[in-house]
Design brief:
The protein is of the alpha/beta class. The protein contains ten helices and five strands; from the N terminus they run H-E-H-E-H-H-H-E-H-E-H-H-E-H-H. Bound molecules: shikimate-3-phosphate. The site of shikimate-3-phosphate has 11 residues, from helix 2.
Length: 202
């Protein structure tokens, strides 16, 4: 039953954190859908890239430019572990948008899967992902959006990880609100998010 996936067994200390991780490639809509989803659920929203930037005191682009991708991945994994620790000590439910590469780094992937928190793979046709990134370029170019070939190669290499997510949601041509509603329905969050684990309902 779908609800059981969400309300899984409590650890010795407390129930599994109420949280959802949004995973997927650049341009998948993790942050915009995550914000909309959090508003609908009355949960807080967190973007892992923002935690990284706070920790480091520099932007993701600056970390890539000045220190390179390997260092970015180390900082990303450390920020993720901070977040997982925080989640295990709070009852505050959270929607978290991961970076496009987080779930595809072996150590980070294992840590996320080990947390037992639901993961939602937001996907779209590659051309649409590229277009969305192009449109957002006005704000800041993504360090890993170089050529279309590299974009495709990276996406294909990461698919094996993205496919291990709890559920996959196709976002191609859909509105943000509709995607958020689909996630709530697919994970059964509408019935279960406000119900404490083991609580009796009248
Ligand atoms: C990355 C995606 C970015 C950011 C960094 C690396 C990636 O996040 O974490 O530039 O490896 O795909 P978004 O997916 O939010 O763009």
């Amino acid at each position: 039953m779908r609800s059981n996936r969400w309300l899984t067994k409590p650890s010795a200390k407390s129930a599994k954190p109420k949280a959802v991780f949004l995973v997927g490639f650049m341009g998948a809509g993790k942050s915009s859908v995550g914000r909309a989803l959090a508003v609908r659920l009355g949960w807080t929203f967190e973007d892992l890239d923002e935690r990284i930037e706070r920790r480091e005191g520099r932007s993701v682009s600056e970390i890539f430019r000045d220190s390179g991708e390997p260092e970015f991945r180390q900082v990303e994994d450390a920020a993720l572990r901070d977040l997982l620790k925080h989640l295990s000590t709070t009852d505050e439910p959270k929607v978290i948008a991961l970076g496009g590469g987080t779930f595809a780094q072996r150590d980070s992937h294992e840590a996320i899967q080990g947390s037992g928190i639901s993961t939602v793979f937001l996907d779209a046709p590659l051309g649409e992902l590229w277009q969305r990134c192009e449109q957002q370029m006005l704000d800041a170019k993504r360090p890993l959006q170089t050529s279309k070939n590299k974009f495709r190669e990276t996406y294909n290499a990461r698919l094996q990880f993205y496919r291990t997510a709890s559920v996959k949601i196709e976002t191609g041509g859909k509105r943000i609100e509709a995607i958020a509603a689909e996630i709530i329905q697919t994970l059964g969050l509408d019935q279960n998010a406000v119900r404490p684990y083991g609580g009796n309902r009248q």
